[in-house]
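Record 1 of the preview.
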Amino acid sequence: MNGSSITLENKQQNVVLRTVIKYPVLPTFVFFILMVTTFIILSPTNRAGQNIFLSPINLANIAEATAAFSIGAFAMTLVLLVGQLDLSTESVIALSAVTFAMALERGMSFGVALLLTFSVGALCGVTNSILVLKFKVPSFLATIAVALVYAGLAFLVSGSRTIQIREPMLTRAFGSFGSGASFLGLPVLLVWTVFFLIAMYLLISRSKYGRWAQATGGNDQAAYSSGVNTKAVCATAFILMGLFGSFIAIILSARLSVAAPGFGTGYGLNLIMASVLGGTSFKGDGGNVFGALLGSLVIGVLQNGLGILGVDFHTQQVITGLVIVSAVVFSIYLSEKK
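->
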């Protein structure tokens, strides 16, 4: 009898494990539901008797606050999918932001400023890919090293100053902080998030390049032997990450109406963690943009909910760090099981 019970229990455990391996984003989804439920229950009410966490203003704030994270996480998912890592994103954001602001400050048109900004992001992506693919520097080390260069350039180019931005087209496209800018009744940054979600979904999950990327991350030697230009696939991922970093810089500049060489701090790791929380492993196993979106929401809602409950900043860091560490450990565990 005991033997039968143990056998049944083992079978049930195996079924659960196989389900989680097949759908690695499932634990994150369960955690997200439990977290949201907890914040709803514990959230105080405002003077109108409305639950603060569920208030339309707070939900809009969450959508806007996580927009840049989500958009960046879509591109980071692709980088992880090809088996690489990019830790230079926050410095790319800083350098792109000051480039954009200084171009406008010197009287260049909005279009030229955008072109210069995206050129900076693309150049950073090309530099990263050359170091990793041509000189064989591990992406972890290469992108950490160049992050120092990009950050230093941001301070040198800007003279370590905060640059004011006054550009009506920028405000119309992205809105400013607290402006409540909307498009078709939706927060404008939510619209941008959905646009990039669909675009990256089509690229990763529905295109030939996406199949090449997944093959490269799964086994680059086998993919190369099958005729896939693995170097071109990886280089494209790095360049897209650079371009997305520039786009995030423009969003932040629009929201704050300023640009500073300190922009982007913390973004690099958060983008990676959002992707990992969304089911993408460090070994290029699986992953999709919908999971990355969920991972971004976990980070954004966690920080928002803890703030509403009055948890101090340092305690928030501890809690967020524990969640991230758990996600990394679980991701490695699932990769080994695969």
